[in-house]
Amino acid sequence: MSSIEITVPLAFCPRPPEYRISCCTFAQKGKALATGFSSGEICLWSVQETPGSETINIFPRVVGCGGCSPVIDICRVNFDGLAALAHVTADGSFYIWDSSDARCINYCAQLITFSPLKIVPLVDGRVVACIGNSNEIVLIDIVTLEICMILSGHTAPLVSLSQNEVHQSIDAEKLERVLLSLDESSVMRIWYVSDDYSSIRGSRKQKKFCEGSVQLTAGTRQIEISDDKRIIFALEPNALRILAASSFNIILEVPSPESHSFFHSM
Q1: Distance between CA 44 and CA 40 in Å, rounded?
Q2: Rounded to an integer, what distance in angstroms lies between the CA atom of residue 58 and that of residue 143?
Q3: For residue 96, how many other CB atoms are within 10 A of its CB?
Q4: How far apart are CA 237 and CA 235, in angstroms?
């Protein structure tokens, strides 16, 4: 008779796990903080402001215990109208939690085959985009926990991913999200993803200095796009660059302190 191993996610309180924090995000519109741990657990923390004071009190409220694989990243999602949290573990498993009580409401073991690095919510939180040691972006439906689309175009593993809110598409009848991806060779690509996934458009943004645009410095590991989609922030080893999203022209460059790297000081 073969043995079957069953993992049952649990929630308990009040003591937080005594392990290294691996990721965090705000939950419940800033009223709570969610952290992931190297032990595979997550913890919800209450965030309370003291009236008439600048003091903020943060204390553990509930711990969600799933698998044993380290939590790599965690983000807010929308599970059929319920405010929830999604996290991915080092073995590619996905968990969906109720952000109010850390109750596990969906789970899929080893959903992705590569080692994950970051997850970003899309389409009002109904879908998450996942990157890792792969040159593809995997889009996952959090309700069914199925891969609904794979975005291919990069030739090197991805190191950073950033998303933006809705903007009107060329069609004028569909809403799109802007997704900005960066790979190990410092190639940045901008994607436009429509709500119904009928429109996926990608554009490569890599040119040399002599051609009037910007080639990101080798070693760049983090990028973010502003809410108005006009500004891109690129965190390079020795400088923070602020770029125009339309042309990639440098607007401002802030060097790191002498003899210190931004990555070492973070």
Answers
A1: 14
A2: 31
A3: 23
A4: 7
Tokens representing residue 84 in the block:
């929830």
Q: Within a 13 Å sphere around the CA of 219, how many CA atoms are in the beta-carbon half? A: 9
Burial 101-138 (b: 16+ CB within 10 A, else e): ebebbbbbeebbebebbbbbbbbebbbbbbbbebbbbb
Q: Report the SS3 class of residue 105.
A: strand
Contacts of residue 233, defined as CB under 8 A and 6 or more positions apart, other chains included, come to 223, 224, 225, 226, 240, 241, 242, 243
Contact 137, 84 (CB under 8 A): no
- What count of other Cβ atoms lies within 10 Å of the Cβ of residue 228? 10
Classify residue 2 as exposed, middle or buried by CB count within 10 Å of its CB (0-12, 13-18, 19+). exposed
Q: 224: closest CA among 215, 233, 237, 236?
A: 233
Q: Which residues contact 152 (CB under 8 A, 6 or more apart)?
A: 135, 136
Pairing label, strands 71-79, 104-108 = unpaired
- Contact 206/215 with Cβ under 8 angstroms? yes
The answer to whether the CB of 91 falls within 8 A of the CB of 66 is: no
Q: Bridge partners of 152?
A: 136
121 vs 58, higher pLDDT: 121
**pLDDT confidence band for 249 (50 / 70 / 90):** confident
Q: How far apart are CA 161 and CA 145, in angstroms?
A: 20
Alpha carbon of 168 to those of 131, 171, 173: distances in Å? 26, 8, 8
pLDDT of 265 strictly over 50: no
pLDDT digits (tens, 9 = 90+) for 185-225: 888 887 777 666 544 445 444 322 222 335 677 778 777 87
Residue type, 90: A
